[in-house]
Amino acid sequence: MTSDASAPELPEGHIATGDKGLKADALGFMSNLVIGVASTAPAYSLAATLGFIVVISGVGVKAPAVLLVSFVPIVLVSLGYRYLNKADPDAGTTFAWTTRAFGPWIGWMNGWAIFVADVIVMASLSVIASTYTYLLFNWNHGANSTFWLIVGSIVWIALMTWICYRGIELSAETQVFLLSAEILILTAFTVVALVKVYNGNGLPSSLHVSGSWFNPFDISFNSLILGVLLGIFIYWGWDSGVSVNEESRDSAEGPGKAAVLSTILLVLIYVSVSTAAIAYAGPKFLGANQNDVLKPLGKSVFGSPWYKLLIIAVLTSASASTQTTILPTARTTLSMAKWGAIPEVFGKIHPRYLTPTVSTIGMGVLSAVWTALLIGFDPSQNVLGDSVTALGFAVCFYYGFTGLACGWFFRRELFKSVRGFVLAGLMPVLGGAMMAFIFVKAWIVESNPSYNYSPPLFGIQVPIVIGIGSLLLGIPLMFFAFVKLRPYFRRKTEVAPRGLI
Description:
By secondary structure, this protein is mostly helical.
């Protein structure tokens, strides 16, 4: 199933392309997996989020349990990606699938939600990449200067935009290098920290690991949900590996399988590193350094100068995720253009590199402007912190619809086998329902000013202004698109072909 006519046959010796002009068969399964894991920025996500989970009342040492529970809706939704990609390996992923299942209006809003989430997070990722670059070279002035943070962020965005522009293979090779360094360092940290704990060389507040740390039933429901709200952010991004499906070998199977496996690898990384961090330092230490738990831990676990390994881990993590955030956004807008949902200029492909041109460069420019404005007008970075929370609304929105779309799209096939009913119906729909619940719960929680960094704007909390406001902004834009691009909005809903599950 494709959104356009098949690509014309090319003379022998020419590079094969898909129906959107992207380079076909350029990536293997491992590249899909690497892109999916790297997109979540494991080191950065842990550094920026673990401390906040630990300080939630009633959580503390049970943060690993929170990460296990957070994994549940993620892996359920990933099954939706697995089966929808099998039916329709479209680079637009959720946009294309929800258009087929629920119609063009819901499809358009889901494409917009992917775009919004990716743009919002780019500021945080690029600022972290800039900050850690300066820290790596002991330039504290640059790390604390608004001007140099903006400069460094824009340089990182420009560099990663260029890599994405120059070809999918270069993008994948860069990811392999960055993720390998990140995983090796996090593994070394976990091993060294735990060895020191059991040798009696941990911090005075160190603890031996207990089975109760992994038991979510020891946490109150409200505390658990607050932790899951943060946990969703930690896991978000693995779907980037599916967005390059049209450039992958075995496009209908490989990217979907990689999506599910990437979530499993992520839960192993997060639970092991968080367990080692809590055991080595204790929850009070992590809570006291909640803005970045890895930097102070690195100095104690590795000592000087090896503590810079964790700085390198966070740097490679943020820079890798900066790149893999540009990749799916450009392919989403490319797909929307090819479907006729947005102006066709966004569907232009470079004749040599076979990458989206306007979509890739446009994402880079918009991200640079957003970052410069956010940091320039708020040097304290309070709004930046709230923007990270805000992107959870867009993430839950399109993840949730993906899970629901899977069950509905395959509705004629679900009752032909127990396996199909469970894997392509029950589990993805349950994951979608969980995302809807988390969306509503996040709205309630973020309405409380005590959970936010910035003062309210017009009486509304900043995460809601950014998160919900950005989604609502898509509605007038969608109606404008309706006026100009009516054929897309006349599309009928579809059902999955027979025999796919």
